[in-house]
Design brief:
By secondary structure, this protein is α/β, with parallel strands linked by helices. It is 31% helix and 22% strand. It has helices at 16-31, 55-71, 85-91, 104-114, 156-160, 168-180, 216-223, 245-249, 266-272, 281-291, 310-323, 350-373; strands at 7-12, 35-36, 45-50, 75-79, 97-98, 138-142, 144-145, 164-165, 185-189, 204-207, 210-213, 229-232, 256-258, 296-303, 327-332, 379-388, 391-395, 407-409, 420-428, 433-437. It binds iron/sulfur cluster.
């Protein structure tokens, strides 16, 4: 690296979807000859990719911008919070430029303006698979932007726009280059994976001499040919999702579905205006498990949504008992500026929200522990994330990185990070498994 290489600092906040945005911007910057600075001091300019989903994320983003301004002084802001520039300018009038979510071109233009690129960009030094912020052995694959739903607690559609799917051949080429670069696990993300391609009228395209439609089932089929782990996130319980479950039973895709159910009471789901709210979700889960018994179901929920009565909350607990979900995250409803749910009355008192969250998580924890216990004694393939001395941390088919549990492996001396390993499950607690390698 020459001393004159322009250096960009990068702070990436928010969800995996924002991470994918960051990766794309970084890839392009590297392609243009910029270096990525390891800290504020070394950077000529800092890009902050923000999150604006809930108020806590807004605060975190505003703090990050403040820190970058204090430490470096030259700051460009992008990401979800960038869709509301007045919130940023109110606290940080000195930022150089604010761009909205997935406005890659605008971010790059702003960087060019404040830190011109070198004249001889080493474009061919950038690996074909791009620059990834996630560890080498797994990568997120974003298949679309935006969302056509109108959930009453969410402002993402107004920030990120309507559903805009990437054509299937483009997505498959990216997935293939990731696999070639050594990625062992692809995590498919979007705001609504089951709706993939609807905006393109399921346009058809060729990949390796086979024609595929830009739709969820074809995407699943084609990714299943790559011979690596493929994990599906943000899938809604529509009937057409049933068609993908046999691919999981055949081992083409990980037997894992992340379905943000959000609630189990029909009346609350209606107030939330959730997609697929009219579906009989318990029946759907029964069908899925009858096709693929080893399926891991992950979901997130909101407790204390405006208007939630004790009876509706108990319906949710009963629903959870029936659904027996493996992995569950839950949040107390928190008003997001601009969300229509804020006007639903009455709001649930914070202490009631707190109490319901604790009851809900206790139930979810018991289910998680009981389901993990059934795996003790079995043999499984895991993907090793890290190895330290004789211990390794890995993930099983049922564990997405960062949000699910872990497999803690002892006597792991011969294992390598980023590789698959066969292990015997020797124990389980509420969320994690214990294992030893099979020689
Ligand atoms: S599906 Fe609902 S919660 Fe998800 S992004 Fe779309 S509107 Fe928001």
């Amino acid at each position: 690296m020459s001393r004159k290489d322009p250096k960009v600092g990068f702070v990436s906040l928010g969800c995996p979807k924002a991470l994918v945005d960051s990766e794309r911007i970084l890839t392009q910057l590297r392609a243009e000859g910029y270096q990525i600075a390891p800290d504020y001091d070394a950077a000529d300019v800092v890009v902050v990719n923000t999150c604006g989903f809930i108020d806590a994320a807004v605060d975190e983003s505003l703090d990050a911008i403040g820190e970058a301004l204090a430490q470096n002084g030259k700051v460009i802001v992008t990401g979800c919070l960038g869709a509301r520039p007045e919130r940023i300018l109110e606290r940080h009038p000195r930022v150089l430029k604010i761009t909205g979510p997935h406005a890659y071109e605008d971010v790059l233009t702003a960087v060019h303006q404040h830190l011109p690129p070198k004249h001889d960009p080493f474009t061919d030094l950038v690996p074909a698979q791009g620059v990834r912020l996630t560890p080498r052995h797994y990568a997120y694959l974003k298949i679309s932007e935006g969302c056509n739903n109108k959930c009453s607690f969410c402002i993402i559609p107004s920030m990120r726009g309507r559903l805009a799917s990437r054509p299937i051949d483009q997505v498959l080429r990216e997935a293939e280059s990731l696999a070639r670069a050594g990625v062992r696990e692809i995590l498919v993300i979007s705001q609504d994976t089951s709706a993939y391609g609807a905006d393109l009228r399921y346009r058809r395209a060729k990949w390796h001499d086979t024609e595929y439609a830009t739709r969820f089932l074809d995407l699943a089929r084609a990714l299943g040919e790559l011979g690596i782990w493929v994990r599906m996130h943000y899938v809604y319980p529509y009937p057409h999702v049933d068609e993908v479950i046999p691919l999981m039973a055949e081992g083409k895709l990980l037997p894992y579905l992340d379905v943000p159910f959000q609630h189990g009471s029909a009346s609350v789901l209606k107030r939330m205006r959730r997609p697929a709210q009219a579906e009989d979700t318990l029946e759907r889960i029964r069908t899925w498990r009858s096709i693929c018994p080893q399926l891991t179901l992950r979901s997130t929920f909101i407790v204390g949504f405006p208007g939630e009565t004790e009876a509706e909350f108990e319906e949710l607990l009963d629903w959870l008992d029936e659904a027996q979900l493996d992995r569950v995250g839950a949040f107390k409803y928190s008003p997001v500026e601009g969300a229509t749910a804020n006007s639903i009355a009455p709001h649930v008192a914070p202490e009631v929200q707190e109490e319901r969250l604790a009851r809900f998580m206790e139930r979810a924890q018991q289910i998680s522990a009981a389901r993990l216990a059934t795996r003790i004694g079995g043999e499984e393939t895991v993907l090793v994330d890290t190895v330290e001395g004789t211990r390794a941390i890995a993930r099983s088919r049922g564990d997405a990185p960062e949000i699910d549990g872990l497999v803690r492996i002892s006597r792991a001396g011969k294992l390598r990070a980023g590789e698959f390993a066969r292990v015997q499950i020797t124990g389980a607690d509420d969320y994690d498994l214990k294992a030893t390698p099979i020689a």
